[in-house]
Design brief:
alpha/beta; FAD/NAD(P)-binding domain; 3 domains; 6-stranded mixed sheet; 4-stranded parallel sheet; 13 helices; 28% strand; binds flavin-adenine dinucleotide
Length: 447
């Protein structure tokens, strides 16, 4: 028996075979489940769609698949016991919203919409047999959706130096993958007594491009309000703040002139977490504390599925290799991608913004695409849009925002992006932001 595959919990095993003395009632041995067992038997001939990752994209796809294909058997696999929202989590860091606002029950929407939710780790795939490997066993599928979000590519900084990776993750958490690191960062902010906090920004493409600047503004607001002798140094690999360039520059200068310093063209060259030093293409910096965000890549599940794209030199792109208009894998049209792990879309702008808004949109589009295929209809290529609101001031609460619109260029057939920045910070945008999140949460969390 392969020990890794053996899933009886030790106390249950002890009861079953070791502790049943003569005076105790005999207990039947529980069925032995290994990760090679097939679980979740099929329900007749219903099409089975398995979704790996129950975040913004995966939960949306699950809801719409059940609605659009009423006789479908939809299974959502998620490692976490509850849903934690990235959007609004910067505001949660400084108590503008409560934990209940960002953290939600996943079983309720599953029961309401009629899909099966299984809390488990997706560990691999056997695509030739249309099977997903999980910590609980093997699950069959007809269609597979990968929606596992991102991974922190610490290896880009540290190679396989696991000690440096673990030290960085535990002492200078990036808190861009919900949810444990979020608590660590919140505690860090609460306990901050002064000094220089360095924030590294990942190179594009990365999860929610405007949100690290929002985080810097809100931490700066906390520093200003509590008169903490602290500074924030944003080490940005890009040549300028983007998106919402003017809105952020103005907020940095008008609201936090003595606290925030933005350093452009600061690509990370070397990180020494033990001695709190970082070398970049814009110079070397020492820090007292830090939020060290490494490069982002597609979640491990895309690597496990063997569906990462390759560049012209045959090197992994780090993101899914997919059809830019229909969102299925280029090499396997039974596998779809939803959310931040998606790959290249267009020469003009690269990737769709890695946002909750886009993940939600694509989750619905992919459900529509699969429904069309199940019904034997022609699949329609659809485009998303994107909208992000960012809080830059907490007293009074003021936000800026950015909208992206997409269309297909008639001449080239390529997807074209138009970016509209709302650079003037207003209280009205805060109201729009809260209305936006209410609409999104009601869409896939049914609240
Ligand atoms: C601080 C911050 C602020 C943000 N602000 C905004 C904003 O204002 N607006 C906006 O639109 N977006 C915002 N975002 C971005 C948004 O959170 C992401 O773009 C969105 O969550 C992407 O959805 P997803 O479904 O691809 O990934 P996620 O929502 O991260 O979901 C992926 C899920 O897959 C699960 N998973 C991964 N691997 C496995 C596995 N092997 N087995 C089982 N489960 C697995 C994860 O646990 C997770 O629940 C923000 C993000 C952060 C961190």
């Amino acid at each position: 028996m392969n020990r890794r595959n053996f899933l009886i919990t030790p106390p249950a095993l002890a009861l079953a075979i070791g502790m049943g003395g003569a005076s105790q009632p005999a207990l039947a041995a529980p069925a032995i489940i290994t990760s090679n067992s097939r679980i979740l038997p099929r329900d007749g001939k219903k099409p089975r769609i398995v979704i790996c990752g129950g975040g913004w994209g995966g939960m949306t796809a699950a809801r719409y698949l059940r609605e659009l294909i009423p006789n479908s058997d939809v299974v959502l696999l998620e490692r976490n016991p509850t849903f934690w929202s990235g959007p609004m989590s910067n505001k949660w860091l400084i108590d503008i919203v409560s934990t209940d606002f960002v953290n939600h029950d996943m079983q309720r929407p599953a029961n309401l919409y009629g899909y099966t939710l299984l809390q488990t780790e997706v560990t691999g795939f056997e695509r030739d047999r249309k099977l997903v490997r999980t910590a609980h066993g093997l699950i069959e599928y007809d269609f597979l959706i990968l929606s596992g979000g991102i991974r922190n590519a610490y290896d880009a900084w540290f190679g396989n130096d696991q000690r440096a990776i673990d030290y960085t993750r535990t002492h200078f958490p990036s808190a861009y993958i919900p949810n444990a690191e979020m608590f660590a960062l919140k505690r860090k902010i609460k306990e901050f007594k002064g000094g220089t906090i360095v924030m590294t920004l990942p190179p594009p493409p990365h999860r929610c491009p405007p949100s690290p600047y929002e985080r810097a503004c809100l931490i700066a607001w906390h520093i200003k309000k509590n008169r903490i002798p602290g500074k924030i140094l944003i080490l940005d690999p890009k040549p300028k703040v983007a998106p919402i360039h003017m809105g952020y520059q103005t907020a940095f200068q008008e609201l936090y002139p003595d606290i925030i310093t933005h350093v452009p063209n600061a690509k990370v060259v070397e990180v020494d977490p033990f001695n709190k030093r970082i070398k970049t293409t814009a110079g070397e910096f020492k820090f007292d504390d830090a939020i060290l965000m490494p490069p982002h890549q597609a979640a491990e599940m895309v690597w496990h599925a063997g569906l990462i794209g390759k560049d012209a030199n045959g090197k992994p792109t780090g993101w899914a290799d997919m059809h830019s208009r229909l969102f299925h894998a280029n090499s396997d049209d039974s596998v779809y991608f939803v959310g931040d792990l998606m790959g290249f879309i267009s020469d003009q702008f690269g990737h769709y913004p890695k946002s909750g808004h886009v993940a939600n949109y694509i989750g619905r589009i992919v459900a529509q695409n699969i429904a069309e295929r199940v019904a034997g209809k022609e699949v329609v290529a659809r485009l998303p849009d994107n909208l992000c609101y960012m809080m830059v001031n907490a007293e009074p609460q003021e936000e800026i925002s950015v909208k992206f619109e997409y269309e297909v260029d008639a001449a080239s057939g390529k997807v074209i992006q138009t970016q509209i920045d709302m650079d003037v910070r207003t209280e009205d945008l805060v109201k729009e932001d809260f209305a936006w999140i209410k609409e999104k949460f009601s869409d896939f969390l049914a609240i």
